[in-house]
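Task 17 of the worksheet. Students: predict the tertiary structure of the chain below and write it out as structure tokens. Keep your answer in the requested format; marks are given for formatting as well as content.
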Amino acid sequence: MNTKQKGIIFTMIATILFGITPAVGKLTYAMGNNGVQLAFLRHLFVLPLFFIIVVYQGQSFRLNKSQWLDVFKVGFFGNTLTIVMLYSSYEYIGVGSATVLHFLYPLFVVCMNFVLYHQKLNKQQLCCLVLAIIGIFCFMDSSSSSLMGALLAILSGVFFAYYMVGMDHSSIRYMSPYVFNFYLVLMNSIVIFILAFLLGRITILPIQAYILSGVVAVLTSLVGVVLLQKGIYCLGASLTAILSTLEPITSIVVGVVWLNESLTLLKIIGCILVLFSTFILVKAQNQKEDI
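Model answer:
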């Protein structure tokens, strides 16, 4: 098996895990859990694992002032708010719909680079943006819960786009990924716990809910992240991003089959438009990098 084939397998397994775990997490909602508390548990459970990995590899935990600032800005506004918004959206709409709307983030990355770093938008990018906006409206209905869920999912994509842009334009890109992830999950555990406490979202759960939350934590924040990093190493970021479109498709299938979520023709059309616009955008970027 060559490097490219390994990268494809790593990436596909990671995206399938990312696509399945939202459904696992949503099962805990019926046991008294909620999106904010699940986000807290997801980071708390992997915190000691990242600590052990960093110590085992003999890496330093020391950061300079610039790195501390970047970890806070990118970590809080990019990662923390992404997960809180996305997990909260599952309380209002299906995991498949939420994941598709979250996958608008490549378009938001383009927009942020245009606004913050004056990177020009070409006709292809503008066309993708229009297609994605049309796709968004396919997921909307008149109920307030659906609108709230869609808004939360879209905002999760906005904050994740900031996370991607911040990673690319800060000192974080030169840090050890395990050290960065340790401080990231540490900060998220503290910040999200405070948020959950202030909102009154901390509840005592049955042991099964904690076990399922632990499964979500390990499969996403540890196994999924490591496999995705290996995929990027073997394939490159652009090709990995294209293969990652398997994630929302997996979420939709799992949501319909496992959670009995509805899937209308209009939502199918919206899904196709969003994924098509994302695929074209990332593929165009891949061709641009090859020139």
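Marker's comment: The mean pLDDT is 84. Residues 207-235 form the longest helix (29 residues).
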